[in-house]
Amino acid sequence: MDEVTPLERIRRQLALAVGENAAFDGWTPAAVDLAAEGAGIPLEQARLALPKDAVGLIELYGEAIDRELALLFPPERVAAMKIRARIRDLLWERLRLQAPAREAIRRALAILAMPQNLAAGARLSWRTADHIWRLAGDTATDFNHYTKRATLAAVYGSTLLAWLGDESEGDSDTAAFLDRRIDDVMRFEHFKARWNGDSDRRPSLTRFLGRLRYPPR
To answer: Taking the CB of residue 115, how many other CB atoms lie within 10 A of it?
Structure first.
């Protein structure tokens, strides 16, 4: 197990509180100071340990959510679930974990949508999708590694927007939206599996050239 430095320990201790405070104070040093005061950590130490910019604080919060999600879905729990349930429950639980910082998430998306932050936003989106697939037990290293994450990043992004605007009881509208998106992902994955497994029906330049030279009788 990697050793956690004192500064990293402070970052981890304050990360979730910073996100919750950002709903009122924005992703600013004020949110850091308030989190430090609540945890009884000297402001000087907190300011030294935590990022100074909004994107850095947003990333810190996302890392904390990832750690919480990993604790809720240990390998033995995931192993007993079907793949659809793994992805669906991981996405839903991530939303639930972020509920105390809902307004802060809205602010974070606005910040990441700024032209100078688009690359950081794409990186954070990819990291979220990668983390979820890894928790789900995915070990793909080929082209599927990238298509799975790109697809899931799109699903999570659209579901996050639906969640932010959801006023239904228990976020039931978001739950239904997520179920539909997960069904789309599963259909796409099944299609890919059939396509990849049926080599005789896939377009082949070699077969095409062979038929030009030796046309069927």
So the answer is: 6
Provide the residue ranges of all domains of the chain, joining segments of one domain with +.
1-52, 62-213
Q: Which two tokens stand for residue 69?
A: 């999600």
Dist CA 186 CA 159 (whole Å)? 16
- pTM of the predicted model, to two decimals? 0.84
- CA dist 31 and 17 (Å) reads 8
CA dihedral 108, 113, 116, 117 (to 10 degrees): 50
Q: Which pLDDT tens digits describe the chain residue by residue (217 residues)? A: 567 899 999 999 999 999 999 999 999 999 999 999 999 999 999 999 999 999 999 999 999 999 999 999 999 999 999 999 999 999 999 999 999 999 999 999 999 999 999 999 999 999 999 999 999 999 888 888 898 999 999 999 999 999 999 999 999 999 999 999 998 877 766 656 565 555 555 555 445 444 544 455 5
**Third-level CATH fold of 62-213:** Tetracycline Repressor; domain 2 (1.10.357)
Placement of tokens 């004192």 in the chain: 6
Question: In the block, which residue shows the tokens 């579901």?
Answer: 159
